[in-house]
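Q&A log
Question type: sequence-to-structure
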Amino acid sequence: MSSYTQPDPASPSLQDVSIAKALTSQEDLKRRAEHCSADPRLLASISSERGHQVRIVRSSEEYALYTVSEARPEGADVVRMGLVGRRRLGTDGEFDAVLDSRVPHPTFSDDDARAGGELVERLQDDGRHSGLIAIAPHGGNIEPRTDEQAERVVSRLAAHAVSSWSCKGFKPGGEAFERWHITSTDISEASFPLLNCVIGRGFAHAVAFHGFAGPDILIGGTADEGLKQEIKAAIEAATAGSGIAVRVALPDERFGGDDPRNVVNRLTADGAGGIQIEQPADARARHHLDIADAVSDVYARRLELSTEGLR
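Response status: OK
Response body:
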């Protein structure tokens, strides 16, 4: 069973708070289980601010990540959530909690994180490469096998020094998604130190592996239509006979990944090179490496052409 690994109680990342219900006017909190509001003075006391992620800890077994979507002046120790947000921590009511600005655990191994129900952040990067970064913001048991896909791309394209960034979240007994998921358009590099190392690099390409409940494999992002169609064809070939359809997302489609705030797009030069791949559970269970290999082959050709242009 997991148990919250709290830092030193004197840590400046921690504050005792009161979790209160959303106000009538706070429609965002009522709709979004991952969002909360807090007093700006409270946020400043833990070196956080609006738009950052925070942990809210109700007990050693009930804690989760939230995005501070509103900085609202009020009693300095008040954090507000809607009903859907409070239910992530196992209650409909108001309660006392600890607010923690630490997001990924700074020292745990993957095995430690799995055993302790924790979140860890991983980066493979040489500090210079700007061709391609493969990411999995919701790896581990949040959206299973997506981190393995990002790592596979790096392995397959080792000759090109491709980078990868991933988060791996766990919760013994299940519900890692409920504990650790943060929507890709909300992810703040200020809350993820390793992401902050590469967010401004301006990669030519970025590809994000995700899982969702839809029936098809969905190819989205802000990258050009030609690249999307090339990836679609490669994944179709890799999953032939599976019965899983592959399609390119329509503009502004939910899960289409074309929002400029999406982390995969923000990692690219001018925000114009991101690819988001949403995959149903069946595709990830049976074909996660086939899909990663197909994606690797497409980018290998793109990176080769880029390299030839520099010769």
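Response note: The chain has two domains: 14-100, 111-310.
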